[in-house]
Design goal:
Number of strands: 7
Strand order of the largest sheet: 5-4-3-6-7
Number of helices: 5
CATH class: Alpha Beta
Order of helices and strands: HEEEHEHEHEEH
Radius of gyration: 16 Å
CATH superfamily: Glutaredoxin
C-alpha cells in the first residue's frame, strides 16, 4: 500500500512538471484588462514568457538584459516578450513603479494569484519559457549573467523550425 501511494504521488508530480502547452488562464494588465495566456503565441508567433517579481533580483537582472538586447534581437527573430509579475495584489503598485522606472519595452501582465505559475509547475523564479502556437518549446529556471545569450540562441533555432 505504501509503495502504491508513493508511486501515485510520483506520477502526479511528473505529469505536473511535463506541461507541454500553455494553460487557458486569464491574466490582467496594469490597467485591469484581461488577457488570455493562450493568445500570446498563436499564429506561429514566438513568445518569451518570463515569470518575475519585484523582490527577485535575478528576475530584474534578466529582464534588464533582455530589454537591452531586444531591438537587436528583433532584427533576426520575430518574437514578443511577456514579463508576467507573480507579485501579490498588494505589490502591484510596486511592480508598476519598477516597470515604469526601468523603461522596459516588455508586455507586462499580472499573475497576482500565481495561477499561471502553479499551472506551469514553476517552483522558482525567474522562470523563462519560449512558446510557439501555445506549445512550450523551452523552459529555464534561474538567471546568471550571460543566460540571455543562450535564450537568444534558442530563439534563433526555434524560429527556423
Amino acid at each position: 500500500m505504501r509503495n502504491l501511494i508513493f508511486l501515485s504521488v510520483f506520477l502526479i508530480s511528473i505529469t505536473g512538471f511535463s506541461q507541454k502547452t500553455l494553460p487557458n488562464i486569464s491574466l490582467k494588465t496594469f490597467e485591469g484588462d484581461k488577457v488570455s495566456v493562450t493568445e500570446l503565441s498563436s499564429n506561429d508567433k514566438i513568445a518569451v514568457i518570463s515569470l518575475w517579481a519585484t523582490w527577485c533580483v535575478p528576475c530584474i537582472k534578466e529582464l534588464d538584459a533582455i530589454n537591452e538586447l531586444y531591438d537587436e534581437w528583433r532584427t533576426e527573430v520575430d518574437f514578443e516578450v511577456y514579463a508576467i509579475s507573480v507579485d501579490d495584489s498588494r505589490s502591484v503598485k510596486r511592480a508598476k513603479a519598477l516597470v515604469n522606472g526601468k523603461g522596459w519595452e516588455h508586455n507586462i501582465l499580472l499573475d497576482t494569484n500565481q495561477n499561471l505559475k502553479r499551472a506551469l509547475g514553476a517552483s522558482a523564479i525567474p522562470e523563462t519559457i519560449i512558446v510557439k502556437n501555445n506549445k512550450i518549446l523551452y523552459q529555464h529556471t534561474g538567471y546568471r549573467n550571460g543566460d540571455e545569450y543562450e535564450l537568444f540562441e534558442k530563439l534563433k533555432k526555434l524560429s527556423k523550425e
